[in-house]
Amino acid sequence: MDWLQLFFSNTLGLALDAAPWLLLGLALAGLIKAWIPEQLLGRWLGGKGLPAVMRASLVGAPLPLCSCGAIPLALALHRGGASRGASTAFMVGTPGVGVDSVALTYVLLGPVLAVIRPLAAIFSAVVTGMLVGQTDKASAAEPPQENKLTTAASPAANSCSGSCSCRLPDAPAVHSAEGGLAAFPAAPSRRAALAAGLRYSFTEVLDDISWWLLLGLLLAGLLLTMIPPGVLAQYATGLPAMLLMAVIGIPMYLCAQAATPVAAALVISGVSPGTALVFLLAGPITSIATLTVFRNEFGTGAMALYVMGVAGSAVLCGLLTDTLIAFLVWDLPTQIDTSRELLPAGVKYPALLLLLVMAVRPVRRRFF
Known about the structure:
- It contains 18 helices and no strands.
- It is an all-alpha fold and 368 residues long.
- The protein has one domain.
- Helix 4 runs antiparallel to helix 9, helix 5 crosses helix 13 and helix 6 crosses helix 16.
- The protein starts with a helix and ends with a helix.
C-alpha cells in the first residue's frame, strides 16, 4: 500500500507540475498553427543545400506535430519539389521538439535543458538533412514521382495507425502546369485563423498526445518510485550510456511531450543530463515506422545516413551538454525543484482539471 501511495503521489505531482505549462504550450502551438499555415511551407522549403535545410529545421521545430504527423507532410513537401535534405530536416526537427514540449521541459527539467533541447533538435535536423541531402545527386537520374497531394493512401498513412492517432495534414504544395507553385486559396481572416489554430491545438494535438503523455507520466512515476534519487549517477553517464540510450530510443515511438517526464525521472535518478537529452532526441524523432517509410521513399542508403545523423548528432549533443554543465557547475536538480515551485497549487489543480476535461472527447464536446 505504501508503494502504491508513493507511486500515486509521484505521478500526481508530475501531472500537476506539467498541466499549466502544457496548457500554455498548447495555446502557443495554436498560435503557431494560425500564423504558419501548411500552404506556406512549400514556399519556404524550396531550394537545395544548407540554406534550405536550415530553413526546414527552423520552420519545423516549433510546429505542433509528432513524427506520425510530420512524416506525411514531409513526404508531401518532397513530392511537391522540396529537396531530400530539406524534407529530411523537416522530418527530424518537427517531432524532436515543439513549443508545448519546451514548456514541459522548462518545468520538469529546468531552464538549462529547456534552452539546450530545441537547439540540439535543430542541430540534429541540420546534420541529418545535410547527410541525406548528399543522395540527391544519386536520385537525379530516377524518374520523377507522381505528385500525390493526398497522403491517405501513402505508406506514411499506414505508419500513423501504428504510432498514434494523429490526423494527416493537408498537402502543402500545389504545382502549376509550368512547374511553379500555383496560386493558393485566399487566406482566412486573422480571427478565423486564430480560432482554427486553437481548435486544432486543443482537439487534434491534445488527442494525439494524451495517451502517450499519460503513459510517460505513469512510467516517470514508476521510475521515481522504484529508483531512489541519485542511485544511477555512477552508471548512466558517459559515451557508453548515451550510445545505449540512442539504441533504445531510435526504434521506439514516444512523442516529445511524453518523453519529457520520463527524462525528468531519469535525471532525478542520477542519469546525466546529456544522457537524458539523447533519449529526448532519439525517442521522439524516429521509430520503426518512420524508418520503414523513410526507406520506401528515399532508399536504404539514405535511411542509413538518416540513422547515422540522428544517433550521431544526439550523442554529440549529449556529450557537449554534460561537458558544458560540468564546466559551468550548474546544479540541475536545484533548478528543477525551483521550476516546479514557480506556480502555486491553486493554479496547478484547476489546470490539471481543465486538461483532463479537454482530453476526454465526450466531455469536451459537451462543454466546448
